[in-house]
Amino acid sequence: IENKIVKRMCHEQVIVVANGQFPGPTIQVTEGDNVIIHVLNNSPYNITLHWHGIYQLFTSWADGVEYITQCGIRNGHKFTYKFKVIGQEGTLFWHAHSFGLRATLHGAFIIHPRNGRYPFPKPYDQVPIILGDWYDSNFLDALEGALVDGGVAVSNAYTINGFPGDLFNCSQSQTFKMKVKHGKTYLLRIINAALNNNLFFKIANHKFTVVATDASYTKPYVTDIIILAAGQTLDVLFKADQPTGSYYMAASPYGVGMPPDLFDGTMTRGIVVYDGHNTRASRPIMPLLPPFFDTPTSFKLFSNLTSLVGAPHWVPVPPNVDEHMFITVGIGLDMCPANVKCVGPLNQKFSANMNNESFVLPKGKGKSILEAFYHKVSGVYTTDFPDNPPTVFDYSNSNLTFNMSLIHSPKSTKVKKLKFNSTVEIVFQNTGVLKAQSHPMHIHGHSFHVLAQGFENYNAVRDKKKFNLVNPQIHNTVAVPAGGWAVIRFQANNPGVWFVHCHVDDHQVWGLATAFVVENGPTPETSLPPPPADLPKC
Protein backbone atom coordinates (compact mmCIF):
# COMPACT_ATOMS: atom_id res chain seq x y z
CA ILE A 1 0.00 0.00 0.00
CA GLU A 2 1.59 3.28 -1.09
CA ASN A 3 0.98 6.78 -2.37
CA LYS A 4 0.92 7.29 -6.12
CA ILE A 5 0.54 10.31 -8.40
CA VAL A 6 -2.39 9.80 -10.80
CA LYS A 7 -3.59 12.25 -13.44
CA ARG A 8 -7.34 12.72 -13.86
CA MET A 9 -9.45 15.62 -15.16
CA CYS A 10 -6.45 17.79 -16.20
CA HIS A 11 -4.29 17.62 -13.11
CA GLU A 12 -2.27 15.28 -10.94
CA GLN A 13 -3.44 13.95 -7.60
CA VAL A 14 -1.71 11.92 -4.90
CA ILE A 15 -3.82 8.89 -3.99
CA VAL A 16 -3.33 5.71 -1.97
CA VAL A 17 -3.18 2.53 -4.07
CA ALA A 18 -2.44 -1.19 -3.81
CA ASN A 19 0.36 -2.67 -5.95
CA GLY A 20 0.52 0.59 -7.93
CA GLN A 21 -2.97 0.08 -9.38
CA PHE A 22 -6.17 2.14 -9.34
CA PRO A 23 -8.56 0.44 -8.92
CA GLY A 24 -6.57 -2.15 -7.01
CA PRO A 25 -5.77 -5.68 -8.19
CA THR A 26 -8.58 -8.13 -8.84
CA ILE A 27 -8.36 -11.11 -6.51
CA GLN A 28 -9.56 -14.34 -8.17
CA VAL A 29 -10.24 -17.40 -6.00
CA THR A 30 -12.17 -20.65 -6.19
CA GLU A 31 -14.84 -21.52 -3.65
CA GLY A 32 -13.20 -23.55 -0.87
CA ASP A 33 -9.79 -21.88 -1.24
CA ASN A 34 -7.66 -20.81 1.68
CA VAL A 35 -6.60 -17.22 1.01
CA ILE A 36 -3.44 -15.58 2.35
CA ILE A 37 -2.89 -11.88 1.63
CA HIS A 38 0.27 -10.11 2.79
CA VAL A 39 -0.19 -6.36 3.30
CA LEU A 40 2.83 -4.07 3.62
CA ASN A 41 1.89 -0.48 4.42
CA ASN A 42 4.19 2.08 2.83
CA SER A 43 1.55 4.83 2.91
CA PRO A 44 1.55 7.57 5.54
CA TYR A 45 -1.83 6.41 6.90
CA ASN A 46 -2.88 3.61 9.21
CA ILE A 47 -4.48 0.96 6.99
CA THR A 48 -6.92 -1.92 7.32
CA LEU A 49 -8.34 -3.94 4.43
CA HIS A 50 -11.85 -5.41 4.54
CA TRP A 51 -13.00 -8.33 2.40
CA HIS A 52 -16.51 -7.07 1.80
CA GLY A 53 -19.11 -9.84 1.91
CA ILE A 54 -16.73 -12.68 2.74
CA TYR A 55 -18.26 -14.70 5.59
CA GLN A 56 -14.98 -14.96 7.51
CA LEU A 57 -16.35 -18.03 9.27
CA PHE A 58 -14.38 -18.29 12.54
CA THR A 59 -11.85 -15.74 11.18
CA SER A 60 -13.24 -12.49 12.54
CA TRP A 61 -9.62 -11.37 13.08
CA ALA A 62 -9.29 -11.09 9.28
CA ASP A 63 -12.37 -8.92 8.68
CA GLY A 64 -10.20 -5.81 8.54
CA VAL A 65 -12.26 -3.06 10.22
CA GLU A 66 -10.27 -0.40 12.05
CA TYR A 67 -11.04 -0.32 15.80
CA ILE A 68 -13.69 -3.03 15.37
CA THR A 69 -11.60 -6.15 14.58
CA GLN A 70 -8.08 -4.70 14.62
CA CYS A 71 -6.08 -1.54 14.87
CA GLY A 72 -4.57 -0.06 11.74
CA ILE A 73 -1.40 -1.33 10.08
CA ARG A 74 1.02 1.52 10.71
CA ASN A 75 3.45 2.99 8.18
CA GLY A 76 6.32 0.57 7.60
CA HIS A 77 4.48 -2.32 9.22
CA LYS A 78 2.78 -5.39 7.75
CA PHE A 79 -0.02 -7.83 8.49
CA THR A 80 -1.14 -11.08 6.85
CA TYR A 81 -4.87 -11.71 6.37
CA LYS A 82 -5.77 -15.42 6.36
CA PHE A 83 -9.26 -16.80 5.73
CA LYS A 84 -11.16 -19.50 3.87
CA VAL A 85 -13.72 -18.69 1.19
CA ILE A 86 -16.52 -21.17 1.71
CA GLY A 87 -20.19 -21.32 0.74
CA GLN A 88 -20.07 -18.41 -1.70
CA GLU A 89 -19.72 -17.91 -5.47
CA GLY A 90 -19.86 -14.72 -7.47
CA THR A 91 -18.64 -11.14 -7.18
CA LEU A 92 -17.59 -9.34 -4.02
CA PHE A 93 -14.91 -6.71 -3.47
CA TRP A 94 -12.24 -5.62 -1.04
CA HIS A 95 -11.60 -2.11 0.23
CA ALA A 96 -9.85 -0.13 2.92
CA HIS A 97 -11.90 0.20 6.10
CA SER A 98 -9.98 3.03 7.70
CA PHE A 99 -10.62 6.77 7.45
CA GLY A 100 -12.11 7.12 4.00
CA LEU A 101 -9.20 5.44 2.24
CA ARG A 102 -11.50 3.14 0.29
CA ALA A 103 -12.12 6.02 -2.16
CA THR A 104 -9.08 4.77 -4.10
CA LEU A 105 -8.09 1.62 -2.21
CA HIS A 106 -10.46 -1.06 -3.51
CA GLY A 107 -10.70 -3.87 -6.04
CA ALA A 108 -12.80 -6.81 -7.20
CA PHE A 109 -12.87 -10.11 -5.31
CA ILE A 110 -14.19 -12.86 -7.59
CA ILE A 111 -15.14 -16.33 -6.35
CA HIS A 112 -15.34 -18.98 -9.08
CA PRO A 113 -17.27 -22.25 -8.67
CA ARG A 114 -15.06 -25.18 -7.74
CA ASN A 115 -16.62 -27.44 -10.37
CA GLY A 116 -16.38 -24.72 -13.05
CA ARG A 117 -20.15 -24.76 -13.68
CA TYR A 118 -22.64 -21.93 -13.30
CA PRO A 119 -26.44 -22.23 -12.94
CA PHE A 120 -26.71 -20.35 -16.27
CA PRO A 121 -25.08 -20.79 -19.71
CA LYS A 122 -21.34 -20.28 -19.53
CA PRO A 123 -20.46 -16.77 -20.78
CA TYR A 124 -17.93 -16.07 -23.52
CA ASP A 125 -15.97 -13.77 -21.20
CA GLN A 126 -16.16 -12.07 -17.81
CA VAL A 127 -15.61 -8.34 -17.24
CA PRO A 128 -15.34 -6.60 -13.84
CA ILE A 129 -17.06 -3.20 -13.83
CA ILE A 130 -16.16 -1.14 -10.75
CA LEU A 131 -18.27 1.97 -10.28
CA GLY A 132 -16.46 4.50 -8.10
CA ASP A 133 -16.00 8.21 -7.61
CA TRP A 134 -13.24 10.75 -8.01
CA TYR A 135 -12.31 13.71 -5.83
CA ASP A 136 -10.56 16.57 -7.59
CA SER A 137 -8.81 17.68 -4.42
CA ASN A 138 -7.16 15.83 -1.55
CA PHE A 139 -10.10 13.76 -0.36
CA LEU A 140 -8.59 12.91 3.01
CA ASP A 141 -8.02 16.61 3.80
CA ALA A 142 -11.62 17.32 2.81
CA LEU A 143 -12.83 14.46 5.02
CA GLU A 144 -10.86 15.73 8.01
CA GLY A 145 -12.50 19.13 7.54
CA ALA A 146 -15.92 17.51 7.26
CA LEU A 147 -15.40 15.71 10.56
CA VAL A 148 -14.87 19.07 12.24
CA ASP A 149 -17.73 21.04 10.68
CA GLY A 150 -20.13 18.15 10.02
CA GLY A 151 -20.01 18.61 6.28
CA VAL A 152 -19.77 16.27 3.32
CA ALA A 153 -16.84 15.55 1.02
CA VAL A 154 -18.60 15.77 -2.37
CA SER A 155 -17.05 13.93 -5.31
CA ASN A 156 -16.38 15.69 -8.62
CA ALA A 157 -17.07 12.71 -10.87
CA TYR A 158 -18.10 9.08 -10.87
CA THR A 159 -15.85 6.53 -12.50
CA ILE A 160 -15.99 3.25 -14.40
CA ASN A 161 -12.92 1.14 -13.63
CA GLY A 162 -11.12 4.27 -12.44
CA PHE A 163 -11.96 6.51 -15.41
CA PRO A 164 -14.42 9.44 -15.28
CA GLY A 165 -15.26 9.22 -18.99
CA ASP A 166 -15.45 11.63 -21.89
CA LEU A 167 -17.92 14.11 -20.38
CA PHE A 168 -15.07 15.66 -18.40
CA ASN A 169 -12.16 17.85 -19.40
CA CYS A 170 -8.94 16.06 -20.41
CA SER A 171 -10.76 12.72 -20.20
CA GLN A 172 -11.28 11.63 -23.81
CA SER A 173 -8.50 9.09 -23.40
CA GLN A 174 -9.63 8.25 -19.87
CA THR A 175 -12.80 6.46 -20.82
CA PHE A 176 -13.27 2.76 -20.15
CA LYS A 177 -13.81 0.77 -23.37
CA MET A 178 -15.18 -2.77 -23.53
CA LYS A 179 -14.68 -4.58 -26.84
CA VAL A 180 -17.26 -7.26 -27.67
CA LYS A 181 -17.94 -9.80 -30.40
CA HIS A 182 -21.35 -9.84 -32.01
CA GLY A 183 -23.61 -12.58 -30.67
CA LYS A 184 -21.45 -13.38 -27.65
CA THR A 185 -22.67 -13.25 -24.04
CA TYR A 186 -20.55 -11.60 -21.34
CA LEU A 187 -20.76 -11.87 -17.57
CA LEU A 188 -20.43 -8.36 -16.15
CA ARG A 189 -19.32 -8.37 -12.53
CA ILE A 190 -20.56 -4.96 -11.40
CA ILE A 191 -19.48 -3.41 -8.10
CA ASN A 192 -20.63 -0.15 -6.54
CA ALA A 193 -17.50 1.04 -4.75
CA ALA A 194 -18.61 4.70 -4.66
CA LEU A 195 -18.40 6.24 -1.22
CA ASN A 196 -21.75 7.95 -0.88
CA ASN A 197 -24.25 7.07 -3.59
CA ASN A 198 -26.49 4.39 -5.02
CA LEU A 199 -25.93 4.27 -8.79
CA PHE A 200 -28.08 3.51 -11.83
CA PHE A 201 -26.26 1.70 -14.65
CA LYS A 202 -27.36 1.19 -18.25
CA ILE A 203 -25.97 0.27 -21.68
CA ALA A 204 -27.75 1.88 -24.65
CA ASN A 205 -30.17 -0.42 -26.55
CA HIS A 206 -29.17 -3.54 -24.59
CA LYS A 207 -30.70 -5.63 -21.82
CA PHE A 208 -29.23 -7.36 -18.81
CA THR A 209 -30.10 -10.64 -17.13
CA VAL A 210 -29.32 -10.43 -13.42
CA VAL A 211 -28.04 -13.82 -12.21
CA ALA A 212 -26.45 -13.04 -8.82
CA THR A 213 -26.25 -10.35 -6.21
CA ASP A 214 -23.74 -10.07 -3.35
CA ALA A 215 -22.28 -13.46 -4.36
CA SER A 216 -25.62 -15.27 -4.13
CA TYR A 217 -27.39 -16.63 -7.21
CA THR A 218 -30.73 -15.16 -8.22
CA LYS A 219 -33.57 -16.32 -10.39
CA PRO A 220 -32.73 -14.76 -13.79
CA TYR A 221 -34.26 -11.29 -14.01
CA VAL A 222 -34.32 -9.37 -17.29
CA THR A 223 -34.11 -5.57 -17.26
CA ASP A 224 -32.64 -2.77 -19.35
CA ILE A 225 -31.41 -0.85 -16.29
CA ILE A 226 -29.95 -1.80 -12.94
CA ILE A 227 -29.24 -0.02 -9.70
CA LEU A 228 -26.66 -0.88 -7.08
CA ALA A 229 -26.70 0.47 -3.57
CA ALA A 230 -23.37 1.60 -2.19
CA GLY A 231 -21.53 -1.61 -1.29
CA GLN A 232 -23.64 -3.94 -3.44
CA THR A 233 -22.53 -6.16 -6.31
CA LEU A 234 -24.45 -7.64 -9.24
CA ASP A 235 -23.56 -10.36 -11.72
CA VAL A 236 -25.40 -9.74 -14.99
CA LEU A 237 -25.35 -11.42 -18.38
CA PHE A 238 -25.01 -9.02 -21.28
CA LYS A 239 -25.52 -10.24 -24.85
CA ALA A 240 -23.95 -8.28 -27.72
CA ASP A 241 -27.02 -8.71 -29.93
CA GLN A 242 -27.45 -5.23 -31.45
CA PRO A 243 -26.21 -3.94 -34.83
CA THR A 244 -22.42 -3.59 -34.98
CA GLY A 245 -21.52 -0.18 -33.60
CA SER A 246 -20.59 1.54 -30.37
CA TYR A 247 -22.84 2.13 -27.37
CA TYR A 248 -22.32 4.14 -24.20
CA MET A 249 -22.52 2.47 -20.82
CA ALA A 250 -23.41 5.09 -18.23
CA ALA A 251 -23.87 5.43 -14.48
CA SER A 252 -25.58 8.21 -12.57
CA PRO A 253 -26.70 8.58 -8.94
CA TYR A 254 -29.98 7.90 -7.22
CA GLY A 255 -29.98 10.72 -4.69
CA VAL A 256 -33.41 11.13 -3.12
CA GLY A 257 -33.28 13.35 -0.04
CA MET A 258 -29.77 14.64 -0.80
CA PRO A 259 -29.30 18.44 -0.54
CA PRO A 260 -28.23 19.72 -3.99
CA ASP A 261 -25.09 21.42 -2.65
CA LEU A 262 -24.00 18.18 -0.93
CA PHE A 263 -24.59 15.92 -3.88
CA ASP A 264 -22.60 14.91 -6.97
CA GLY A 265 -25.12 15.01 -9.82
CA THR A 266 -22.68 14.10 -12.60
CA MET A 267 -22.64 11.09 -14.91
CA THR A 268 -19.82 8.76 -15.86
CA ARG A 269 -19.73 6.75 -19.05
CA GLY A 270 -17.70 4.14 -20.86
CA ILE A 271 -18.08 2.69 -24.34
CA VAL A 272 -19.05 -0.76 -25.60
CA VAL A 273 -17.42 -1.25 -29.01
CA TYR A 274 -18.40 -4.12 -31.30
CA ASP A 275 -15.58 -5.97 -33.04
CA GLY A 276 -15.12 -4.58 -36.57
CA HIS A 277 -16.78 -1.23 -35.89
CA ASN A 278 -15.06 1.92 -37.15
CA THR A 279 -15.28 4.21 -34.11
CA ARG A 280 -14.66 7.27 -36.29
CA ALA A 281 -17.73 6.56 -38.38
CA SER A 282 -20.29 7.58 -35.75
CA ARG A 283 -20.67 8.65 -32.16
CA PRO A 284 -21.72 6.02 -29.63
CA ILE A 285 -25.45 5.75 -28.91
CA MET A 286 -26.35 7.23 -25.52
CA PRO A 287 -28.77 5.54 -23.05
CA LEU A 288 -31.48 7.47 -21.23
CA LEU A 289 -30.97 7.26 -17.47
CA PRO A 290 -33.65 7.95 -14.83
CA PRO A 291 -33.83 11.24 -12.91
CA PHE A 292 -31.74 11.40 -9.74
CA PHE A 293 -34.84 11.08 -7.56
CA ASP A 294 -36.64 8.27 -9.39
CA THR A 295 -37.72 6.20 -6.40
CA PRO A 296 -40.23 3.99 -8.30
CA THR A 297 -37.54 2.74 -10.72
CA SER A 298 -35.10 2.25 -7.87
CA PHE A 299 -37.58 0.34 -5.73
CA LYS A 300 -38.72 -1.87 -8.62
CA LEU A 301 -35.17 -3.05 -9.18
CA PHE A 302 -34.34 -3.47 -5.50
CA SER A 303 -37.54 -5.37 -4.68
CA ASN A 304 -38.11 -7.66 -7.69
CA LEU A 305 -35.12 -9.98 -7.36
CA THR A 306 -35.54 -13.45 -5.83
CA SER A 307 -32.99 -16.10 -4.90
CA LEU A 308 -32.43 -19.20 -7.04
CA VAL A 309 -33.75 -22.08 -4.96
CA GLY A 310 -31.49 -25.10 -5.17
CA ALA A 311 -28.52 -23.18 -6.56
CA PRO A 312 -25.08 -23.86 -5.08
CA HIS A 313 -24.84 -22.60 -1.49
CA TRP A 314 -28.50 -21.54 -1.36
CA VAL A 315 -29.91 -21.65 2.16
CA PRO A 316 -33.60 -21.58 3.15
CA VAL A 317 -35.03 -18.93 5.45
CA PRO A 318 -34.58 -19.90 9.13
CA PRO A 319 -38.15 -20.57 10.33
CA ASN A 320 -37.94 -19.76 14.05
CA VAL A 321 -36.81 -16.35 15.30
CA ASP A 322 -34.92 -15.98 18.59
CA GLU A 323 -34.18 -12.24 18.51
CA HIS A 324 -36.49 -9.52 17.20
CA MET A 325 -35.06 -6.05 16.65
CA PHE A 326 -36.69 -2.87 15.35
CA ILE A 327 -33.97 -0.40 14.35
CA THR A 328 -34.57 3.15 13.16
CA VAL A 329 -31.92 4.55 10.81
CA GLY A 330 -31.67 8.22 10.03
CA ILE A 331 -29.89 11.57 9.96
CA GLY A 332 -29.74 14.07 12.81
CA LEU A 333 -27.65 16.91 14.17
CA ASP A 334 -24.90 17.38 16.72
CA MET A 335 -23.75 20.55 18.45
CA CYS A 336 -21.15 22.59 16.59
CA PRO A 337 -17.72 22.94 18.25
CA ALA A 338 -16.80 26.37 19.56
CA ASN A 339 -15.40 28.82 17.00
CA VAL A 340 -16.36 26.56 14.07
CA LYS A 341 -18.89 27.39 11.34
CA CYS A 342 -20.79 24.16 10.78
CA VAL A 343 -22.57 23.36 7.53
CA GLY A 344 -25.69 21.64 8.84
CA PRO A 345 -29.01 23.34 9.58
CA LEU A 346 -29.11 25.71 12.56
CA ASN A 347 -25.29 25.99 12.35
CA GLN A 348 -24.97 22.46 13.71
CA LYS A 349 -23.07 19.36 12.53
CA PHE A 350 -24.73 16.54 10.66
CA SER A 351 -24.96 13.37 12.69
CA ALA A 352 -26.58 9.96 12.14
CA ASN A 353 -27.98 7.27 14.38
CA MET A 354 -29.51 3.83 14.85
CA ASN A 355 -32.24 3.68 17.52
CA ASN A 356 -31.17 7.15 18.59
CA GLU A 357 -27.60 6.00 19.34
CA SER A 358 -24.83 7.65 17.31
CA PHE A 359 -21.88 5.24 17.14
CA VAL A 360 -18.33 6.29 17.96
CA LEU A 361 -15.34 4.08 17.13
CA PRO A 362 -13.29 3.28 20.25
CA LYS A 363 -10.24 5.27 19.24
CA GLY A 364 -7.64 5.75 21.94
CA LYS A 365 -8.86 2.77 23.97
CA GLY A 366 -5.76 0.67 23.26
CA LYS A 367 -7.70 -2.25 21.81
CA SER A 368 -10.23 -3.01 19.11
CA ILE A 369 -13.68 -4.22 20.17
CA LEU A 370 -12.79 -7.75 19.03
CA GLU A 371 -9.65 -7.78 21.19
CA ALA A 372 -11.64 -6.47 24.15
CA PHE A 373 -14.27 -9.18 23.59
CA TYR A 374 -11.71 -11.96 23.31
CA HIS A 375 -9.61 -10.87 26.29
CA LYS A 376 -12.66 -9.84 28.37
CA VAL A 377 -11.45 -6.24 28.74
CA SER A 378 -13.98 -3.66 29.94
CA GLY A 379 -14.14 0.03 29.07
CA VAL A 380 -13.91 -0.32 25.27
CA TYR A 381 -17.61 -0.86 24.50
CA THR A 382 -20.91 -1.57 26.22
CA THR A 383 -23.49 -4.22 25.30
CA ASP A 384 -26.65 -2.16 25.75
CA PHE A 385 -27.50 -1.25 22.16
CA PRO A 386 -31.32 -1.10 22.29
CA ASP A 387 -33.56 -3.61 20.50
CA ASN A 388 -36.10 -0.84 19.85
CA PRO A 389 -36.05 2.95 19.50
CA PRO A 390 -36.46 4.79 22.79
CA THR A 391 -39.38 6.81 21.42
CA VAL A 392 -42.21 5.65 19.20
CA PHE A 393 -43.12 8.33 16.66
CA ASP A 394 -44.37 8.75 13.10
CA TYR A 395 -41.02 7.55 11.75
CA SER A 396 -41.38 8.34 8.06
CA ASN A 397 -43.06 11.73 8.51
CA SER A 398 -40.78 14.27 6.82
CA ASN A 399 -42.50 17.14 8.67
CA LEU A 400 -40.58 16.16 11.80
CA THR A 401 -37.36 17.64 10.42
CA PHE A 402 -36.81 20.13 13.23
CA ASN A 403 -38.32 18.24 16.15
CA MET A 404 -35.50 18.82 18.62
CA SER A 405 -36.42 15.80 20.75
CA LEU A 406 -35.70 13.54 17.76
CA ILE A 407 -32.85 15.34 16.04
CA HIS A 408 -30.09 14.94 18.65
CA SER A 409 -28.65 11.53 19.57
CA PRO A 410 -26.09 10.68 22.25
CA LYS A 411 -22.67 9.48 21.11
CA SER A 412 -21.84 5.97 22.31
CA THR A 413 -20.04 2.72 21.53
CA LYS A 414 -22.97 0.42 22.20
CA VAL A 415 -23.12 -3.05 20.63
CA LYS A 416 -25.62 -5.91 20.62
CA LYS A 417 -24.74 -9.37 21.95
CA LEU A 418 -26.14 -12.39 20.10
CA LYS A 419 -26.16 -16.02 21.14
CA PHE A 420 -24.30 -18.41 18.84
CA ASN A 421 -26.64 -19.90 16.21
CA SER A 422 -29.54 -17.64 17.22
CA THR A 423 -31.87 -16.50 14.45
CA VAL A 424 -32.24 -12.74 14.27
CA GLU A 425 -34.98 -10.76 12.53
CA ILE A 426 -34.49 -7.02 12.07
CA VAL A 427 -36.87 -4.36 10.85
CA PHE A 428 -34.79 -1.45 9.54
CA GLN A 429 -37.09 1.59 9.64
CA ASN A 430 -35.92 4.69 7.78
CA THR A 431 -36.87 7.99 9.38
CA GLY A 432 -37.93 11.27 7.83
CA VAL A 433 -35.93 13.36 10.28
CA LEU A 434 -33.79 15.79 8.21
CA LYS A 435 -35.22 14.28 4.99
CA ALA A 436 -35.31 10.57 4.28
CA GLN A 437 -32.47 9.10 2.26
CA SER A 438 -31.85 5.54 1.15
CA HIS A 439 -29.55 3.78 3.63
CA PRO A 440 -27.65 0.72 2.32
CA MET A 441 -27.27 -1.30 5.52
CA HIS A 442 -24.33 -3.73 5.51
CA ILE A 443 -23.71 -6.52 8.03
CA HIS A 444 -20.22 -7.99 8.21
CA GLY A 445 -19.61 -11.72 8.56
CA HIS A 446 -23.08 -12.78 7.43
CA SER A 447 -25.49 -12.74 4.53
CA PHE A 448 -29.19 -12.36 5.23
CA HIS A 449 -32.58 -12.97 3.64
CA VAL A 450 -34.51 -9.82 2.68
CA LEU A 451 -38.06 -10.85 3.56
CA ALA A 452 -39.88 -7.68 2.50
CA GLN A 453 -39.48 -3.98 1.74
CA GLY A 454 -41.95 -1.14 1.70
CA PHE A 455 -42.72 2.52 2.31
CA GLU A 456 -44.00 4.61 5.22
CA ASN A 457 -44.00 3.03 8.69
CA TYR A 458 -43.62 -0.72 9.11
CA ASN A 459 -46.83 -2.30 10.39
CA ALA A 460 -46.40 -5.87 11.61
CA VAL A 461 -50.06 -6.84 11.15
CA ARG A 462 -50.19 -5.53 7.59
CA ASP A 463 -46.64 -6.11 6.37
CA LYS A 464 -45.91 -9.62 7.62
CA LYS A 465 -48.30 -10.77 4.92
CA LYS A 466 -45.73 -9.52 2.40
CA PHE A 467 -42.90 -11.71 3.75
CA ASN A 468 -41.28 -13.91 1.12
CA LEU A 469 -40.23 -17.01 3.07
CA VAL A 470 -39.74 -19.18 -0.03
CA ASN A 471 -37.12 -17.54 -2.25
CA PRO A 472 -36.22 -14.08 -0.89
CA GLN A 473 -33.13 -12.20 -2.02
CA ILE A 474 -29.92 -13.01 -0.14
CA HIS A 475 -27.66 -10.01 0.49
CA ASN A 476 -24.94 -8.62 2.69
CA THR A 477 -26.15 -5.06 1.98
CA VAL A 478 -29.79 -3.97 1.71
CA ALA A 479 -30.99 -0.56 0.52
CA VAL A 480 -33.55 0.57 3.10
CA PRO A 481 -35.96 2.68 1.01
CA ALA A 482 -36.13 6.41 1.65
CA GLY A 483 -39.15 6.92 3.88
CA GLY A 484 -39.62 3.17 4.17
CA TRP A 485 -38.42 -0.08 5.72
CA ALA A 486 -36.81 -3.45 5.06
CA VAL A 487 -37.05 -6.69 7.03
CA ILE A 488 -34.13 -9.12 7.13
CA ARG A 489 -33.46 -12.44 8.84
CA PHE A 490 -30.20 -14.33 9.42
CA GLN A 491 -28.53 -16.89 11.63
CA ALA A 492 -25.75 -15.63 13.90
CA ASN A 493 -23.52 -18.64 13.32
CA ASN A 494 -20.17 -16.85 13.28
CA PRO A 495 -18.52 -15.94 16.62
CA GLY A 496 -16.73 -12.62 16.72
CA VAL A 497 -17.46 -8.92 16.34
CA TRP A 498 -19.25 -7.80 13.18
CA PHE A 499 -19.71 -4.19 12.15
CA VAL A 500 -23.25 -3.16 11.16
CA HIS A 501 -23.42 0.13 9.31
CA CYS A 502 -24.73 2.26 6.49
CA HIS A 503 -22.39 1.90 3.51
CA VAL A 504 -22.71 5.59 2.71
CA ASP A 505 -19.38 6.68 4.18
CA ASP A 506 -20.61 10.06 5.38
CA HIS A 507 -23.44 8.42 7.31
CA GLN A 508 -21.12 5.83 8.84
CA VAL A 509 -18.66 8.53 9.97
CA TRP A 510 -21.56 10.51 11.43
CA GLY A 511 -22.56 7.50 13.55
CA LEU A 512 -25.00 5.31 11.59
CA ALA A 513 -23.47 2.09 12.88
CA THR A 514 -23.25 -0.46 15.66
CA ALA A 515 -21.75 -3.94 15.98
CA PHE A 516 -23.03 -7.44 16.68
CA VAL A 517 -20.96 -9.45 19.15
CA VAL A 518 -21.72 -13.10 18.41
CA GLU A 519 -20.84 -15.25 21.39
CA ASN A 520 -18.82 -18.46 21.15
CA GLY A 521 -20.50 -21.78 20.54
CA PRO A 522 -20.34 -24.73 22.95
CA THR A 523 -17.14 -26.32 21.57
CA PRO A 524 -13.63 -25.19 20.63
CA GLU A 525 -14.58 -25.76 16.96
CA THR A 526 -17.46 -23.29 17.30
CA SER A 527 -15.44 -20.65 19.15
CA LEU A 528 -13.29 -17.76 18.04
CA PRO A 529 -9.62 -18.85 17.87
CA PRO A 530 -6.84 -16.71 19.41
CA PRO A 531 -5.66 -13.61 17.54
CA PRO A 532 -2.83 -13.99 15.01
CA ALA A 533 0.63 -13.22 16.33
CA ASP A 534 1.11 -10.32 13.89
CA LEU A 535 -2.17 -8.54 14.69
CA PRO A 536 -1.34 -4.79 14.56
CA LYS A 537 -0.94 -3.02 17.88
CA CYS A 538 -2.86 0.14 18.66
UniProtKB/TrEMBL annotation:
Query: Which protein family is it in?
Result: Belongs to the multicopper oxidase family.
Q: Does the keyword Repeat apply?
A: yes
Q: Which domain of life is it from?
A: Eukaryota
Which PANTHER family does the annotation name? LACCASE (PTHR11709:SF483), MULTI-COPPER OXIDASE (PTHR11709)
Q: What is the lineage of its organism?
A: Eukaryota, Viridiplantae, Streptophyta, Embryophyta, Tracheophyta
Q: What class of enzyme is it?
A: oxidoreductase
What's the name of the protein? laccase
The record places domain Plastocyanin-like at 3-115, 126-276, 384-521
Its UniProt entry gives the catalysed reaction(s) as: 4 hydroquinone + O2 = 4 benzosemiquinone + 2 H2O
The reply on keyword Metal-binding is: yes
Q: Fetch the SUPFAM superfamilies from UniProt.
A: Cupredoxins (SSF49503)
- Which controlled-vocabulary keywords does the entry list? Apoplast, Copper, Glycoprotein, Lignin degradation, Metal-binding, Oxidoreductase, Repeat, Secreted
Q: Where in the cell is it found?
A: Secreted, Extracellular space, Apoplast
The transmembrane segments are none
Q: Which cofactor(s) does the record list? A: Cu cation
User: Primary place of residence?
Assistant: secreted
Q: Which organism is this protein's natural source?
A: Stylosanthes scabra
EC number(s) stated in the UniProt entry for this protein: 1.10.3.2
